[in-house]
Here is the input.
Amino acid sequence: MLSKYQRISQDLIDKIDKQEIKVHSYLPSENELMKLYNASRDTIRKALDILLKNGYIQKNKGKGSLVLDVDKVAFPVSGVMSFKELAKTINSEVVTKVIELSLNPVDVQMKKELYMDSGNYYKIRRIRSFDGERVILDTDYLNANIVPNITETIAADSLYNYIENELGLKISFARKEFTVVKATEEEKNLLDMHEYDLLVCVKSYTYLEDASLFQYTISKHRPDKFRFVDFARRTQL
Here is the structure.
């Protein structure tokens, strides 16, 4: 038989799942929940702890318990997948908007990031929206000596489809780095941040089959919308 705090937590979860309590809204205060469920403060806090541990809420000091979107997108950590391929696995309306496409002479920074000595590189910035919410900002830098003639149509559709199926190149592997960073004012304007001021930043370096580095990407994700998944096998050293 469930204890009282478990019954309260399950009732709140049911209301969130049924959207009776809306995502990105705040739960009633502890005092209001005490009256609503005729329960002690300790019982309410235990119930809220269950929601917190299961990813249903985030506690914001001075504001209360923010309801999170538990329908997170599984974003592969170890695989090399285009966003278009990822979108096929998502039960949401997914839209890509290109906000910048420029061809630039290689500079000191890109010489370092793309191991280029000369030539041009493309800079592409794209906003990814899920069900009308702007949740990812992707900035791609591509070696134009390897990947030429990129158009806005190609950028809005799939770079990897163009690279593999039109240019005939074989994408092989990527090196990735994950950090959490504070959102800039520009990023807050470009994305629907709600109460969040942090972004999950994924930097990746992607290589062709011959080990040529052709792409450097900085992808910033609103943290509540994604879960980053991987498969690991134990190896004793």
User: Anything to note?
Assistant: The chain has two domains: 4-67, 83-225. Helices lie at 4-17, 30-37, 41-53, 83-87, 108-114, 152-157, 159-166, 185-190.
